[in-house]
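Page 37, continued from 36.
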């Protein structure tokens, strides 16, 4: 794809193609390998990789547009893609990574479509955002680190080339951070544990590490635990808007289905389409209000980040909470309007509902966002 070519027509076509097989991926829970081949062919897996490494050099605006459109077609693909964009953008700006590793991960994405994602969550630790040391341990052994542990919710696990593993060292005073682990190394295995209500094709399975050896310089960013209290604001800003953009995309797919349903559904007792009813028009108008709010919130947030004005963690959480909540409300309203037709497995709306509900799970969770906002209002 020409780096200067507009994205929207390409993304619209990809979304339509991906939608054709989305129900099958949802039913089987199989990873959408073919979707990622298409994304690679369009140079979209290296969208946020710097141009000097062969990527498009795209910013947050293009990343948000891309995942939003892809989510309309197949949201599991969009979530894996969002994680790729967040990882690649943060790696490109990392000042702790060895230059050769930073460049290799970027070039691999551009030349081979290699995916990267951070593996942080563990069975006992839960979400790292809520504190605590990981149980995954990196032990110093000569000129290597030996890594052992288990990661859960490892989004895109079957296709990851690079795993950014959150672990602690076995030193007397442990350091904590990211170890860059190629997925092909001996001692790594994937256990297929992912069988969730929605976003089923992300294959966010468990990844187990058993004495996996990596060179010393693959400890790309390890620090004392206390030094992690401050987040990477740019990475957090990207995460705060890319993830909810996926669920906004799902909501827009639900709205599109509902519009078609209202225009074509003609009950015999009515003798004309449901779209002619003021009640249906008003309900659809409320959906348009929610989507318009989302569009404005996302667009203004992206403009700030692109201009170098990085919002604080609290604001990022509010954006994620509001956009996701509005997206869920859109799909629920569509379900109310369509009734039994909406929950039929033959129609996509019930799948959209199951997928959009997963938006509540991502960090930061709703309780954390509300608690922070309340404490700030009370000056606590």
């Amino acid at each position: 794809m020409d780096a200067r070519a507009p994205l929207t027509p390409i993304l619209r076509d990809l979304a339509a193609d991906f939608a054709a097989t989305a129900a099958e991926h949802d039913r089987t829970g199989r990873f959408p390998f073919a979707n990622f081949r298409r994304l690679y062919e369009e140079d979209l897996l290296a969208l946020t990789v710097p141009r000097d490494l062969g990527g498009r050099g795209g910013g947050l605006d293009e990343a948000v547009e891309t995942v939003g459109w892809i989510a309309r077609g197949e949201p599991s693909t969009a979530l894996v893609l969002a994680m790729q964009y967040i990882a690649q953008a943060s790696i490109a700006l990392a000042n702790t990574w060895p230059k050769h590793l930073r460049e290799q991960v970027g070039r691999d994405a551009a030349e081979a479509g290699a995916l990267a994602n951070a593996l942080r969550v563990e069975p006992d630790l839960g979400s790292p955002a809520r504190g605590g040391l990981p149980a995954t341990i990196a032990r110093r052994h000569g000129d290597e680190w030996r890594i052992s542990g288990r990661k859960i919710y490892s989004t895109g696990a079957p296709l990851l080339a690079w795993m950014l593993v959150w672990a602690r060292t076995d030193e007397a005073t442990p350091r904590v951070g990211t170890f860059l682990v190629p997925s092909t190394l001996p001692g790594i295995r994937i256990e297929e544990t992912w069988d969730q209500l929605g976003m089923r094709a992300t294959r966010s399975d468990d990844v187990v590490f058993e004495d996996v050896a990596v060179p010393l310089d693959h400890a790309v960013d390890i620090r004392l635990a206390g030094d992690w209290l401050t987040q990477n604001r740019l990475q957090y800003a990207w995460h705060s808007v890319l993830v909810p953009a996926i669920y906004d995309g799902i909501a827009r797919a639900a709205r599109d289905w509902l519009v078609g349903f209202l225009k074509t559904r003609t009950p015999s007792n009515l003798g004309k389409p449901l779209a002619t009813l003021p009640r249906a028009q008003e309900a659809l108008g409320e959906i348009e209000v929610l989507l318009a709010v989302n569009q404005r919130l996302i667009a203004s947030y992206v403009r700030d980040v692109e201009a170098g004005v990085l919002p604080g963690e609290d604001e990022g959480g509010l954006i994620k909470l509001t956009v996701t909540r509005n997206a869920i409300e859109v799909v629920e309203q569509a379900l109310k309007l369509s009734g039994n037709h909406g929950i039929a497995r033959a129609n996509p709306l019930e799948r959209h509902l199951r997928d959009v509900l997963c938006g509540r799970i991502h960090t930061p969770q709703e309780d954390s966002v509300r608690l922070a906002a309340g404490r700030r209002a009370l000056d606590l």
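The two ends are 51 Å apart (CA to CA). Flag for discussion at group meeting. The first helix runs from residue 8 to 28.
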